[in-house]
Amino acid sequence: QRCDIGFIGLGVMGKNLTLNLADHGYRIACFDLDQSKVDAIQEQDAKERGDAPPRVVGCRSYTELLGKLEAPHLIILSVPAGEPVDHVCNHLIDAGIGADDIVVDTGNSLWTDSVEREQRYKGKFIFFSTAVSGGEVGARFGASLMPSGDPYAWTRIEPVLHAIAAKVDPKTGKPLESFEPGKPVTEGEPCATYIGPVGAGHYVKMVHNGIEYADMQLICEAYHVMRSGLGMTPVEVARIFRQWDKGVLNSYLMGISAEVLEKVDDETGQPLVDVIMDKAGQKGTGLWTAVSALQVGSPAQTIAQAVFARSISSLKDERVRAKAMLPGMETPKVDDKQRDKAIQALHDALYCSKICVYAQGFQLMELASQEHGWELDFAEIAKIWRAGCIIRAVFLQSITQAYEQNDELANLLLDPFFASQIQEFQGNWRRAVADATLMGIPCSAMSSALNYYDSYRCDVLPASLLQGQRDYFGAHTFERVDKPEGRKFHIEWSQPGQPQVAIKR
Ligand code: 6PG
User: Fold this and answer.
1) Rounded distance between C-alpha atoms, residue 318 and residue 298, angstroms
2) Which of 134, 209, 400, 462 minimizes the number of CB atoms within 10 Å of its CB?
Protein backbone atom coordinates (compact mmCIF):
# COMPACT_ATOMS: atom_id res chain seq x y z
CA GLN A 1 0.00 0.00 0.00
CA ARG A 2 1.36 3.39 -0.99
CA CYS A 3 1.54 6.38 1.33
CA ASP A 4 -0.51 9.59 1.03
CA ILE A 5 2.14 12.03 2.19
CA GLY A 6 5.93 12.15 2.45
CA PHE A 7 7.39 13.85 5.52
CA ILE A 8 11.01 15.02 5.75
CA GLY A 9 12.56 16.29 8.97
CA LEU A 10 11.56 14.47 12.14
CA GLY A 11 12.69 16.88 14.86
CA VAL A 12 10.16 17.68 17.58
CA MET A 13 7.87 19.68 15.26
CA GLY A 14 8.20 17.25 12.33
CA LYS A 15 7.60 14.20 14.47
CA ASN A 16 4.51 15.71 16.06
CA LEU A 17 3.07 16.97 12.78
CA THR A 18 3.53 13.47 11.35
CA LEU A 19 1.71 11.84 14.28
CA ASN A 20 -1.03 14.47 13.99
CA LEU A 21 -1.45 13.56 10.28
CA ALA A 22 -1.51 9.88 11.20
CA ASP A 23 -4.27 10.53 13.75
CA HIS A 24 -6.35 11.93 10.90
CA GLY A 25 -6.03 8.78 8.83
CA TYR A 26 -3.11 9.67 6.55
CA ARG A 27 -0.40 7.14 5.82
CA ILE A 28 2.99 8.82 5.94
CA ALA A 29 6.37 7.93 4.43
CA CYS A 30 9.03 9.54 6.66
CA PHE A 31 12.65 10.43 6.22
CA ASP A 32 15.32 12.20 8.27
CA LEU A 33 19.07 12.35 7.72
CA ASP A 34 19.32 11.09 11.30
CA GLN A 35 18.09 7.49 11.03
CA SER A 36 17.50 7.29 14.80
CA LYS A 37 14.69 9.83 14.38
CA VAL A 38 13.06 7.63 11.75
CA ASP A 39 13.29 4.67 14.15
CA ALA A 40 11.90 6.79 17.01
CA ILE A 41 8.76 7.85 15.13
CA GLN A 42 8.08 4.27 14.04
CA GLU A 43 8.33 3.16 17.67
CA GLN A 44 6.01 5.97 18.75
CA ASP A 45 3.53 5.01 16.04
CA ALA A 46 3.63 1.37 17.17
CA LYS A 47 2.87 2.50 20.73
CA GLU A 48 0.00 4.77 19.75
CA ARG A 49 -1.77 2.76 17.03
CA GLY A 50 -2.24 -0.41 19.08
CA ASP A 51 -3.30 -3.34 16.88
CA ALA A 52 -3.91 -1.20 13.79
CA PRO A 53 -1.51 -1.46 10.81
CA PRO A 54 1.48 0.96 10.71
CA ARG A 55 0.52 4.52 9.85
CA VAL A 56 4.11 5.66 9.47
CA VAL A 57 6.58 4.06 7.08
CA GLY A 58 10.28 4.77 7.66
CA CYS A 59 12.53 5.45 4.66
CA ARG A 60 16.31 5.43 4.32
CA SER A 61 16.66 7.79 1.37
CA TYR A 62 14.89 10.47 -0.64
CA THR A 63 14.49 8.00 -3.49
CA GLU A 64 12.87 5.41 -1.25
CA LEU A 65 10.50 8.07 0.09
CA LEU A 66 9.40 9.14 -3.41
CA GLY A 67 8.93 5.50 -4.36
CA LYS A 68 6.50 4.98 -1.51
CA LEU A 69 4.17 7.83 -2.47
CA GLU A 70 1.06 8.06 -4.61
CA ALA A 71 1.61 10.36 -7.59
CA PRO A 72 1.41 13.32 -7.76
CA HIS A 73 3.51 13.43 -4.63
CA LEU A 74 2.77 15.60 -1.62
CA ILE A 75 5.84 16.14 0.55
CA ILE A 76 5.96 18.18 3.74
CA LEU A 77 9.24 19.55 5.12
CA SER A 78 9.98 20.41 8.72
CA VAL A 79 13.65 21.32 8.60
CA PRO A 80 15.49 24.35 10.01
CA ALA A 81 14.89 27.57 8.07
CA GLY A 82 17.53 28.67 5.57
CA GLU A 83 19.98 26.47 3.69
CA PRO A 84 18.58 23.09 4.92
CA VAL A 85 15.34 23.75 2.98
CA ASP A 86 17.24 24.09 -0.30
CA HIS A 87 19.45 21.13 0.58
CA VAL A 88 16.36 18.92 0.84
CA CYS A 89 14.75 20.43 -2.28
CA ASN A 90 17.88 19.71 -4.33
CA HIS A 91 18.02 16.13 -3.08
CA LEU A 92 14.37 15.67 -4.04
CA ILE A 93 15.18 16.92 -7.56
CA ASP A 94 18.08 14.43 -7.78
CA ALA A 95 15.75 11.68 -6.56
CA GLY A 96 13.33 12.39 -9.43
CA ILE A 97 10.57 14.59 -8.02
CA GLY A 98 8.16 15.70 -10.78
CA ALA A 99 6.80 19.05 -11.97
CA ASP A 100 3.33 18.29 -10.65
CA ASP A 101 4.56 17.26 -7.19
CA ILE A 102 4.15 19.63 -4.24
CA VAL A 103 6.73 20.41 -1.55
CA VAL A 104 5.38 22.26 1.49
CA ASP A 105 7.85 24.12 3.72
CA THR A 106 6.56 24.38 7.31
CA GLY A 107 9.66 25.87 8.96
CA ASN A 108 10.08 29.40 10.28
CA SER A 109 11.44 30.54 6.90
CA LEU A 110 12.09 34.13 5.98
CA TRP A 111 9.17 35.08 3.70
CA THR A 112 11.41 36.43 0.94
CA ASP A 113 13.18 33.04 0.82
CA SER A 114 9.81 31.42 0.08
CA VAL A 115 9.21 33.87 -2.78
CA GLU A 116 12.62 33.08 -4.27
CA ARG A 117 12.13 29.34 -3.84
CA GLU A 118 8.85 29.31 -5.74
CA GLN A 119 10.68 30.86 -8.69
CA ARG A 120 13.81 28.73 -8.32
CA TYR A 121 11.96 25.41 -8.34
CA LYS A 122 9.38 26.32 -10.99
CA GLY A 123 9.12 23.49 -13.53
CA LYS A 124 10.86 21.05 -11.17
CA PHE A 125 8.10 20.86 -8.55
CA ILE A 126 5.56 23.21 -6.94
CA PHE A 127 7.05 24.93 -3.91
CA PHE A 128 4.37 25.87 -1.38
CA SER A 129 4.82 27.44 2.04
CA THR A 130 2.81 26.84 5.20
CA ALA A 131 3.89 28.61 8.35
CA VAL A 132 3.04 26.77 11.55
CA SER A 133 2.51 28.15 15.03
CA GLY A 134 1.80 26.27 18.20
CA GLY A 135 5.02 24.71 19.34
CA GLU A 136 5.27 20.99 20.05
CA VAL A 137 1.77 20.61 21.43
CA GLY A 138 0.16 22.52 18.56
CA ALA A 139 2.02 20.41 16.04
CA ARG A 140 0.82 17.24 17.74
CA PHE A 141 -2.81 18.11 18.53
CA GLY A 142 -3.73 21.07 16.32
CA ALA A 143 -1.70 24.05 15.19
CA SER A 144 -2.48 27.38 13.59
CA LEU A 145 -1.45 27.19 9.94
CA MET A 146 -0.70 30.01 7.51
CA PRO A 147 -0.48 28.51 4.00
CA SER A 148 0.43 30.51 0.91
CA GLY A 149 1.44 29.87 -2.67
CA ASP A 150 0.08 28.31 -5.85
CA PRO A 151 -3.78 28.25 -5.59
CA TYR A 152 -3.95 24.91 -7.44
CA ALA A 153 -1.56 23.36 -4.89
CA TRP A 154 -3.77 24.78 -2.13
CA THR A 155 -6.81 22.88 -3.42
CA ARG A 156 -4.81 19.66 -3.01
CA ILE A 157 -3.35 20.55 0.39
CA GLU A 158 -6.42 22.14 1.95
CA PRO A 159 -8.06 18.98 3.36
CA VAL A 160 -4.74 17.85 4.85
CA LEU A 161 -4.09 21.17 6.57
CA HIS A 162 -7.68 21.55 7.72
CA ALA A 163 -7.39 18.13 9.35
CA ILE A 164 -4.27 18.88 11.40
CA ALA A 165 -5.19 22.46 12.31
CA ALA A 166 -6.50 23.48 15.73
CA LYS A 167 -10.28 23.86 15.83
CA VAL A 168 -12.51 26.59 17.18
CA ASP A 169 -16.13 26.50 18.25
CA PRO A 170 -17.76 28.71 15.59
CA LYS A 171 -20.37 29.99 18.06
CA THR A 172 -18.09 31.07 20.90
CA GLY A 173 -14.74 31.46 19.12
CA LYS A 174 -13.17 29.31 21.84
CA PRO A 175 -10.70 26.47 21.12
CA LEU A 176 -12.02 22.88 20.91
CA GLU A 177 -9.19 20.78 22.31
CA SER A 178 -8.17 17.16 22.74
CA PHE A 179 -4.71 16.14 23.86
CA GLU A 180 -5.21 12.40 23.52
CA PRO A 181 -3.31 10.57 20.78
CA GLY A 182 -5.65 8.88 18.33
CA LYS A 183 -8.61 11.03 19.40
CA PRO A 184 -8.26 14.26 17.42
CA VAL A 185 -10.87 16.99 17.27
CA THR A 186 -12.66 16.68 13.94
CA GLU A 187 -15.34 19.31 14.40
CA GLY A 188 -15.27 23.10 14.48
CA GLU A 189 -13.63 25.77 12.36
CA PRO A 190 -10.05 24.87 11.40
CA CYS A 191 -7.32 27.40 12.19
CA ALA A 192 -5.92 27.22 8.68
CA THR A 193 -6.82 29.59 5.89
CA TYR A 194 -5.26 30.35 2.54
CA ILE A 195 -3.33 33.56 3.15
CA GLY A 196 -2.33 34.51 -0.41
CA PRO A 197 0.56 34.26 -2.88
CA VAL A 198 3.75 32.54 -1.75
CA GLY A 199 5.57 34.41 1.00
CA ALA A 200 2.38 35.98 2.38
CA GLY A 201 1.84 33.13 4.86
CA HIS A 202 5.35 33.30 6.21
CA TYR A 203 5.07 37.09 6.42
CA VAL A 204 1.91 36.76 8.50
CA LYS A 205 3.64 34.18 10.72
CA MET A 206 6.60 36.53 11.09
CA VAL A 207 4.25 39.27 12.33
CA HIS A 208 2.58 36.71 14.61
CA ASN A 209 5.99 36.15 16.15
CA GLY A 210 6.64 39.88 16.46
CA ILE A 211 3.35 40.15 18.37
CA GLU A 212 4.39 37.10 20.40
CA TYR A 213 7.65 38.85 21.40
CA ALA A 214 5.76 41.98 22.50
CA ASP A 215 3.04 40.02 24.30
CA MET A 216 5.69 38.10 26.26
CA GLN A 217 7.66 41.24 27.08
CA LEU A 218 4.53 43.00 28.38
CA ILE A 219 3.76 40.11 30.72
CA CYS A 220 7.39 40.13 31.88
CA GLU A 221 7.22 43.86 32.63
CA ALA A 222 4.06 43.42 34.72
CA TYR A 223 5.87 40.65 36.61
CA HIS A 224 8.95 42.86 37.09
CA VAL A 225 6.93 45.71 38.63
CA MET A 226 5.05 43.33 40.94
CA ARG A 227 8.26 41.61 41.93
CA SER A 228 10.67 44.53 42.32
CA GLY A 229 8.28 47.41 42.91
CA LEU A 230 5.53 45.78 44.96
CA GLY A 231 7.73 43.21 46.71
CA MET A 232 5.67 40.19 45.65
CA THR A 233 6.95 36.61 45.44
CA PRO A 234 6.78 34.61 42.18
CA VAL A 235 3.90 32.56 43.56
CA GLU A 236 1.99 35.71 44.50
CA VAL A 237 2.49 37.07 40.99
CA ALA A 238 1.39 33.71 39.56
CA ARG A 239 -1.83 33.98 41.56
CA ILE A 240 -2.52 37.39 40.01
CA PHE A 241 -1.75 36.05 36.53
CA ARG A 242 -4.21 33.19 37.11
CA GLN A 243 -6.90 35.75 38.00
CA TRP A 244 -6.07 37.83 34.95
CA ASP A 245 -6.25 34.70 32.82
CA LYS A 246 -9.95 34.48 33.61
CA GLY A 247 -10.80 37.87 32.10
CA VAL A 248 -9.92 40.00 29.08
CA LEU A 249 -6.25 39.03 29.42
CA ASN A 250 -7.02 35.33 29.05
CA SER A 251 -4.32 33.86 26.83
CA TYR A 252 -2.04 30.90 26.43
CA LEU A 253 0.97 33.08 27.29
CA MET A 254 -0.66 34.33 30.50
CA GLY A 255 -1.39 30.76 31.58
CA ILE A 256 2.11 29.47 30.94
CA SER A 257 3.65 32.52 32.64
CA ALA A 258 1.77 31.63 35.84
CA GLU A 259 2.99 28.07 35.56
CA VAL A 260 6.61 29.16 35.07
CA LEU A 261 6.39 31.36 38.17
CA GLU A 262 4.95 28.53 40.27
CA LYS A 263 7.72 26.11 39.34
CA VAL A 264 10.26 25.27 42.06
CA ASP A 265 13.82 24.27 41.15
CA ASP A 266 14.47 20.65 42.14
CA GLU A 267 18.11 21.30 42.92
CA THR A 268 17.93 24.41 45.09
CA GLY A 269 14.31 24.56 46.23
CA GLN A 270 14.22 28.16 44.95
CA PRO A 271 11.55 29.46 42.57
CA LEU A 272 12.84 28.30 39.19
CA VAL A 273 12.46 31.81 37.75
CA ASP A 274 15.17 32.98 40.18
CA VAL A 275 17.52 30.28 38.97
CA ILE A 276 17.01 30.86 35.24
CA MET A 277 19.64 33.24 33.83
CA ASP A 278 18.00 36.54 32.82
CA LYS A 279 19.40 36.58 29.29
CA ALA A 280 16.74 36.17 26.60
CA GLY A 281 17.49 34.18 23.47
CA GLN A 282 16.02 34.80 20.04
CA LYS A 283 15.98 33.03 16.73
CA GLY A 284 15.28 36.07 14.57
CA THR A 285 11.59 36.27 13.68
CA GLY A 286 10.95 39.23 16.03
CA LEU A 287 13.95 40.98 14.55
CA TRP A 288 12.65 40.30 11.01
CA THR A 289 9.33 41.86 11.98
CA ALA A 290 11.00 44.97 13.37
CA VAL A 291 13.23 45.26 10.29
CA SER A 292 10.25 44.84 7.98
CA ALA A 293 8.29 47.48 9.92
CA LEU A 294 11.18 49.90 9.43
CA GLN A 295 11.40 49.05 5.73
CA VAL A 296 7.67 49.35 5.10
CA GLY A 297 7.53 52.51 7.24
CA SER A 298 4.95 51.08 9.62
CA PRO A 299 5.15 52.18 13.27
CA ALA A 300 5.60 48.94 15.22
CA GLN A 301 7.68 50.33 18.02
CA THR A 302 6.46 48.02 20.76
CA ILE A 303 7.45 44.98 18.71
CA ALA A 304 10.87 46.55 18.10
CA GLN A 305 11.15 47.39 21.82
CA ALA A 306 10.49 43.77 22.68
CA VAL A 307 13.44 42.77 20.48
CA PHE A 308 15.64 45.45 22.09
CA ALA A 309 14.53 44.28 25.55
CA ARG A 310 15.98 40.86 24.65
CA SER A 311 19.16 42.55 23.42
CA ILE A 312 19.70 44.50 26.64
CA SER A 313 18.98 41.39 28.68
CA SER A 314 21.86 39.67 26.96
CA LEU A 315 24.30 42.32 28.31
CA LYS A 316 24.23 40.65 31.72
CA ASP A 317 27.80 41.39 32.80
CA GLU A 318 27.53 45.05 31.85
CA ARG A 319 24.20 45.38 33.63
CA VAL A 320 25.69 43.94 36.79
CA ARG A 321 28.61 46.42 36.60
CA ALA A 322 26.28 49.31 35.77
CA LYS A 323 24.10 48.67 38.79
CA ALA A 324 26.97 49.57 41.08
CA MET A 325 27.60 52.86 39.25
CA LEU A 326 24.22 54.08 38.07
CA PRO A 327 21.75 54.54 40.89
CA GLY A 328 18.02 54.76 40.26
CA MET A 329 15.33 55.83 42.71
CA GLU A 330 14.43 54.42 46.10
CA THR A 331 11.46 52.07 45.73
CA PRO A 332 8.74 53.46 48.01
CA LYS A 333 7.03 51.15 50.49
CA VAL A 334 3.42 50.38 49.57
CA ASP A 335 0.56 49.32 51.84
CA ASP A 336 -1.98 46.65 50.86
CA LYS A 337 -4.45 49.16 49.44
CA GLN A 338 -1.79 50.84 47.30
CA ARG A 339 -0.56 47.46 46.17
CA ASP A 340 -4.03 46.36 45.03
CA LYS A 341 -4.47 49.61 43.13
CA ALA A 342 -1.06 49.20 41.51
CA ILE A 343 -1.92 45.65 40.46
CA GLN A 344 -5.19 46.80 38.89
CA ALA A 345 -3.28 49.56 37.08
CA LEU A 346 -0.85 46.97 35.72
CA HIS A 347 -3.74 44.84 34.52
CA ASP A 348 -5.24 47.74 32.62
CA ALA A 349 -1.84 48.81 31.29
CA LEU A 350 -1.23 45.32 29.99
CA TYR A 351 -4.63 45.24 28.31
CA CYS A 352 -4.27 48.64 26.62
CA SER A 353 -0.68 47.87 25.58
CA LYS A 354 -1.81 44.58 24.11
CA ILE A 355 -4.43 46.35 22.01
CA CYS A 356 -1.68 48.65 20.70
CA VAL A 357 0.64 45.74 19.90
CA TYR A 358 -2.04 44.08 17.80
CA ALA A 359 -2.87 47.43 16.22
CA GLN A 360 0.81 47.72 15.22
CA GLY A 361 1.00 44.15 13.92
CA PHE A 362 -2.17 44.41 11.84
CA GLN A 363 -1.21 47.83 10.51
CA LEU A 364 2.15 46.40 9.44
CA MET A 365 0.42 43.53 7.63
CA GLU A 366 -1.93 46.02 5.97
CA LEU A 367 0.93 48.13 4.62
CA ALA A 368 2.88 45.05 3.51
CA SER A 369 -0.27 43.68 1.86
CA GLN A 370 -0.68 46.90 -0.11
CA GLU A 371 2.97 46.94 -1.09
CA HIS A 372 2.99 43.35 -2.32
CA GLY A 373 -0.61 43.14 -3.60
CA TRP A 374 -1.49 40.27 -1.24
CA GLU A 375 -5.04 41.38 -0.34
CA LEU A 376 -4.75 39.91 3.15
CA ASP A 377 -8.04 39.18 4.90
CA PHE A 378 -7.58 40.34 8.50
CA ALA A 379 -10.76 38.81 9.89
CA GLU A 380 -9.55 35.43 8.59
CA ILE A 381 -6.07 35.97 10.04
CA ALA A 382 -7.48 36.89 13.46
CA LYS A 383 -9.73 33.81 13.24
CA ILE A 384 -6.88 31.36 12.69
CA TRP A 385 -4.99 32.84 15.64
CA ARG A 386 -7.85 32.06 18.04
CA ALA A 387 -6.54 28.55 18.71
CA GLY A 388 -3.43 26.47 18.21
CA CYS A 389 -0.88 29.28 18.05
CA ILE A 390 1.30 30.81 20.76
CA ILE A 391 -0.58 34.13 20.86
CA ARG A 392 -4.00 32.49 21.11
CA ALA A 393 -6.21 34.51 23.40
CA VAL A 394 -9.83 35.32 24.03
CA PHE A 395 -8.97 38.78 22.71
CA LEU A 396 -8.57 37.43 19.15
CA GLN A 397 -12.33 36.97 18.99
CA SER A 398 -12.81 40.72 19.49
CA ILE A 399 -10.27 41.40 16.74
CA THR A 400 -12.09 38.97 14.44
CA GLN A 401 -15.34 40.84 15.11
CA ALA A 402 -13.70 44.22 14.53
CA TYR A 403 -12.54 43.18 11.04
CA GLU A 404 -15.76 41.33 10.27
CA GLN A 405 -17.68 44.54 10.98
CA ASN A 406 -15.31 46.68 8.94
CA ASP A 407 -12.91 45.00 6.53
CA GLU A 408 -11.40 48.38 5.70
CA LEU A 409 -10.51 49.25 9.27
CA ALA A 410 -7.31 51.32 9.02
CA ASN A 411 -6.23 50.60 12.60
CA LEU A 412 -7.64 48.49 15.42
CA LEU A 413 -7.58 51.57 17.64
CA LEU A 414 -10.30 53.04 15.42
CA ASP A 415 -12.65 50.12 16.06
CA PRO A 416 -15.43 51.42 18.35
CA PHE A 417 -15.04 48.54 20.84
CA PHE A 418 -11.27 48.87 21.23
CA ALA A 419 -11.46 52.68 21.27
CA SER A 420 -13.95 52.50 24.14
CA GLN A 421 -11.82 49.96 26.01
CA ILE A 422 -8.79 52.25 25.88
CA GLN A 423 -10.87 55.22 26.90
CA GLU A 424 -12.02 53.29 29.94
CA PHE A 425 -8.63 52.00 31.02
CA GLN A 426 -6.09 54.57 29.87
CA GLY A 427 -5.93 56.34 33.25
CA ASN A 428 -4.56 53.24 34.91
CA TRP A 429 -2.28 52.56 31.92
CA ARG A 430 -0.68 55.99 32.31
CA ARG A 431 -0.45 55.51 36.08
CA ALA A 432 1.26 52.13 35.74
CA VAL A 433 3.83 53.48 33.28
CA ALA A 434 4.43 56.57 35.45
CA ASP A 435 4.79 54.49 38.63
CA ALA A 436 7.24 52.07 37.02
CA THR A 437 9.22 55.01 35.63
CA LEU A 438 9.35 56.71 39.03
CA MET A 439 10.48 53.49 40.64
CA GLY A 440 13.17 53.07 37.98
CA ILE A 441 11.78 49.74 36.79
CA PRO A 442 12.10 49.35 33.02
CA CYS A 443 8.82 49.04 31.14
CA SER A 444 9.93 49.72 27.59
CA ALA A 445 7.10 47.79 25.91
CA MET A 446 4.30 49.26 28.05
CA SER A 447 5.60 52.79 27.68
CA SER A 448 6.27 52.45 23.97
CA ALA A 449 2.71 51.18 23.48
CA LEU A 450 1.46 54.25 25.34
CA ASN A 451 3.66 56.47 23.17
CA TYR A 452 2.30 54.75 20.07
CA TYR A 453 -1.22 55.49 21.27
CA ASP A 454 -0.43 59.11 22.05
CA SER A 455 1.36 59.61 18.73
CA TYR A 456 -1.43 57.96 16.77
CA ARG A 457 -4.10 60.18 18.32
CA CYS A 458 -2.05 63.37 17.99
CA ASP A 459 -3.32 65.52 15.12
CA VAL A 460 -0.32 67.88 15.06
CA LEU A 461 3.07 66.33 15.68
CA PRO A 462 6.36 68.23 15.93
CA ALA A 463 7.32 66.72 12.58
CA SER A 464 6.72 70.24 11.24
CA LEU A 465 9.80 71.41 13.15
CA LEU A 466 11.65 68.34 11.93
CA GLN A 467 10.82 69.19 8.32
CA GLY A 468 12.09 72.70 8.97
CA GLN A 469 15.36 71.27 10.29
CA ARG A 470 15.73 69.05 7.22
CA ASP A 471 15.06 71.89 4.85
CA TYR A 472 17.51 74.09 6.77
CA PHE A 473 20.54 71.85 6.46
CA GLY A 474 19.77 69.89 3.35
CA ALA A 475 17.17 71.72 1.26
CA HIS A 476 14.99 68.64 1.63
CA THR A 477 11.80 70.72 1.12
CA PHE A 478 8.49 70.59 2.99
CA GLU A 479 4.79 70.64 2.25
CA ARG A 480 2.52 73.42 3.57
CA VAL A 481 -0.76 72.93 5.42
CA ASP A 482 -2.34 75.73 3.34
CA LYS A 483 -1.28 74.40 -0.08
CA PRO A 484 -2.32 71.28 -2.05
CA GLU A 485 -0.73 68.02 -0.90
CA GLY A 486 2.40 67.02 -2.77
CA ARG A 487 3.62 70.55 -3.55
CA LYS A 488 7.15 71.00 -2.24
CA PHE A 489 8.56 74.22 -0.77
CA HIS A 490 12.03 75.32 0.14
CA ILE A 491 13.17 78.58 1.64
CA GLU A 492 16.56 80.17 1.97
CA TRP A 493 17.68 79.83 5.55
CA SER A 494 20.43 81.97 7.09
CA GLN A 495 23.94 81.08 5.97
CA PRO A 496 26.93 80.39 8.27
CA GLY A 497 28.09 83.70 9.68
CA GLN A 498 24.71 85.33 8.92
CA PRO A 499 22.46 84.24 11.74
CA GLN A 500 19.43 86.19 10.47
CA VAL A 501 15.90 84.92 10.42
CA ALA A 502 15.01 83.13 7.19
CA ILE A 503 13.70 85.16 4.29
CA LYS A 504 10.54 83.80 2.74
CA ARG A 505 10.72 83.33 -1.00
C1 6PG B 1 5.26 29.48 17.35
C2 6PG B 1 6.54 30.04 17.87
C3 6PG B 1 7.70 29.31 17.31
C4 6PG B 1 9.00 29.49 18.06
C5 6PG B 1 9.46 30.90 18.13
C6 6PG B 1 10.52 31.09 19.15
O7 6PG B 1 4.48 30.27 16.84
O8 6PG B 1 5.05 28.28 17.46
O9 6PG B 1 6.63 31.39 17.53
O10 6PG B 1 7.76 29.63 15.96
O11 6PG B 1 8.85 29.00 19.34
O12 6PG B 1 9.95 31.24 16.88
O13 6PG B 1 11.17 32.23 18.82
P14 6PG B 1 12.40 32.78 19.60
O15 6PG B 1 13.35 31.65 19.85
O16 6PG B 1 12.98 33.81 18.70
O17 6PG B 1 11.85 33.33 20.87
Assistant:
1) 32
2) 462
Q: What residue ranges do the domains of the chain occupy?
A: 5-197, 202-456, 460-505
Looking at beta carbons, which pairs linking 336-344 to residues 24 or more positions away fall under 8 Å?
A: 339/230, 339/232, 342/225, 342/229, 342/230, 342/432, 342/435, 343/226, 343/230, 343/240, 344/428
Prediction pTM value: 0.95
Average model confidence (pLDDT) for the chain?
96
Q: What is the pLDDT of residues 453-480, one digit of tens each?
A: 999 999 999 999 999 999 999 999 999 9
Is 43 tagged catalytic? no
CA of 109 to the centre of ligand 1 (A): 12
Predicted local distance difference test score (pLDDT) of residue 500: 61
If one residue of 303, 390, 391 were mutated to test the ligand 1 pocket, choosing by the most ligand atoms within 8 A of its CB, it would be 390
CATH architecture of 5-197: 3-Layer(aba) Sandwich (3.40)
Q: Which residues of 124-148 are buried (b: 16+ CB within 10 A; e: fewer)?
A: bbbbbbbbbbbbeebbbbbbbbbbb
Active site residue 183: no
Is 470 annotated in some ligand binding site?
A: yes
Q: For 202-456, which CATH superfamily applies?
A: N-(1-d-carboxylethyl)-l-norvaline Dehydrogenase; domain 2 (1.10.1040.10)
* Ligand 1-lining residues (CB < 6 angstroms): 108, 133-135, 209, 212, 281-283, 285-286, 389-390
Give the mean pLDDT of 203-219: 98
What confidence tens digit (pLDDT) does each residue in 396-409 have?
A: 999 999 999 999 99
Q: Summarize pLDDT for 71-108 with one digit per residue, the tens.
A: 999 999 999 999 999 999 999 999 999 999 999 999 99
